[in-house]
Design a protein that fits this description.
498 residues; mainly beta; seven-stranded mixed β-sheet; six-stranded antiparallel β-sheet; 37 strands; 6% helix; 41% strand
Length: 498
């Protein structure tokens, strides 16, 4: 359906904003309990010749098809328990407790492998989609059929040659973290994205159980994992169905532990011997960017002090109007790559200019304190999330990050050099993740536009696609969707140029 455009869409902007996220929370009498559980709904805003056409389609995962057919929730998800199929005999039902179906409800993000597009979540399955029709194509792809992982992040990195890197965990008697390399498949291969996949490095776990992570960092020479004190209890995860638990019930927070910052040298093929830890316990969903400068490793992310945010995203609370109280902010850690002996053990090892982040040596470990990346006018009670950048700067020094702010009712553009920000907000409007699209031939990092799908509240206010000027951060156009169409907010997305 065609949207109503006000303002002026730049003539050069041509392509599709593709979005992914939960879209269906009720199946028959059953309701999904957590924000991260709803069945995946794909969205497409096609922009061409100053016009915008919108449509959506549910991802036809096995989870979706079985749930619709059975008229109930059939697969265990992050925060929702699923009962065994009542049509199975007693022995089938008993053994299904110990090998529950793993969801392929890929509701988190989208990525490109070669010429094909895939929907992702944090399990071992990904699903190919048609970026024009949003149809689900072929069978689900199983990482574990090719490489030794039981799941992987929904936030892979794509190198300049099109090679995709991701991070997965192998569960077992000896668990490990594995960096996955996925080069583009051969020309003409459309149904085998893992044709050339391999593991390029393996990191043993530090804690008794593997850590939960949602993203990781990458620079020209390093992979970066924040092994945080949020661990996955393997026994609880294995027996979740038997005892009526969910995936989230297996997460355990150990505030007495620090986050270990694991740094793997891509060229040397080994982990750095220096042990870096955060000074305080912390939690992160989303890395912003990382880069190398003057023998330091700079790592930017959205940081929390604890994992309360996971418990605050249950649907009963959200639908009751209870706003999450957890505070997340853009943080910067700076890791010195060369450790020089200091006369004063409390002396800061970070020598970069324009940063208050610090690192000191304590009993052979480098304790790192973060700095806040914006410091003017933002109350401590408000939170930030879903960061994005001009992806051409991924793994490189950069200046601007776009993220949701003010408890998810504004979009912010933070200048990480000046520690200032600009903000767009509107009453009764809730923007989604901001996606930056560079103007062809751009010479400045923020020369382009920022796109966001905005969900509104109120019967007379339509949801819309928001288009902001990347430099001034002022609205230049919006495309309103008919009021009869519900546009869910989604989680992550990308822009496909035409």
């Amino acid at each position: 359906m065609e949207a109503k455009v006000t303002g002026n869409i730049p003539e050069w902007l041509s392509g599709s904003l593709l979005r992914n996220g939960p879209g269906l929370y009720k199946v028959g009498p059953d309701r999904y309990k957590h924000l991260f559980d709803g069945l995946a709904l794909l969205h497409r805003f096609n922009i061409k010749d100053g016009k915008v056409v919108y449509h959506n389609r549910f991802l036809r995962s096995d989870d979706y098809k079985q749930a619709i057919r059975a008229n109930r929730i059939v697969m265990l998800s992050f925060g929702t328990y699923a009962f065994p199929d009542p049509c199975k005999n007693i022995f089938q039902r008993f053994f299904s407790y110990f090998s529950p179906d793993i969801t392929d409800n890929d509701l988190v993000s989208l990525t490109q492998i070669g010429q094909e597009f895939y929907a992702l979540t944090e399990t071992k399955y990904i699903r190919r989609i048609d970026p024009d029709t949003l149809e689900t194509l072929g069978d689900k792809v199983d990482y574990s059929n090719v490489i030794a992982v039981n799941g992987a992040t929904a936030h892979p990195h794509i190198d300049t040659d099109g090679t995709l890197y991701n991070l997965g965990t192998k569960f077992g008697r000896i668990s490990s973290y594995n960096i996955i390399k996925i080069p583009p498949p051969d020309q003409g291969v459309t149904d085998n994205p893992l044709q050339k996949a391999s593991i390029v490095c393996t990191l043993p776990i530090t804690h008794p159980n593997p850590s939960y992570y949602h993203s990781f960092g990458l620079t020209e020479n390093y992979f970066i994992l924040f092994e945080q004190p949020v661990t996955i209890n393997k026994w609880k995860a294995l027996t979740a169905s038997l005892f009526g638990r969910t995936v989230s019930d297996s997460l355990e927070f150990h505030p007495e532990l620090r986050t270990v910052i694991r740094v793997f040298d891509r060229k040397a093929g080994k982990e750095l011997e220096t042990k870096y830890v955060t000074h305080d316990s912390m939690f992160v969903f989303h890395h912003i960017n990382a880069y190398e400068k003057d023998n330091h490793l700079v790592i930017d992310l959205i940081g929390y002090d604890n994992i309360n945010i996971i418990k605050e995203l249950y649907m009963d609370d959200l639908q009751a109007g209870i706003t999450p109280k957890s505070v997340a902010k853009p943080w910067r850690y700076v890791l010195p790559l060369t450790i020089e002996q200091k006369d004063d053990p409390e002396e800061n090892l970070v020598t970069l200019d324009n940063t208050s982040a610090s690192a000191v040596c304590v009993e052979g470990q480098i304790h790192c304190r973060h700095e806040l990346l914006h410091q003017d006018g933002e109350p401590d009670s408000q939170t930030s999330e879903l960061p994005t950048i001009n992806y051409a700067r991924n793994g490189k020094e950069y200046r601007y990050v776009y993220h949701i702010g003010n408890n998810f009712n504004s979009i912010m553009k933070t200048d990480v050099e000046k520690k200032t920000f600009k903000k767009w907000e509107e009453d009764d409007a809730y923007p989604s993740e901001a996606v930056f699209v560079a103007k062809p031939g751009a010479t400045k990092e923020d020369e382009g536009v920022v796109l966001s799908s905005v969900m509104t509240v109120g019967e007379e206010k339509p949801s819309f696609l928001l288009i902001l000027d990347g430099e001034t951060f002022e609205e230049i156009a919006r495309a309103e969707i008919p009021i009869t169409v519900h546009v869910s907010i989604g989680i992550h997305g990308l822009f496909k140029r035409e």
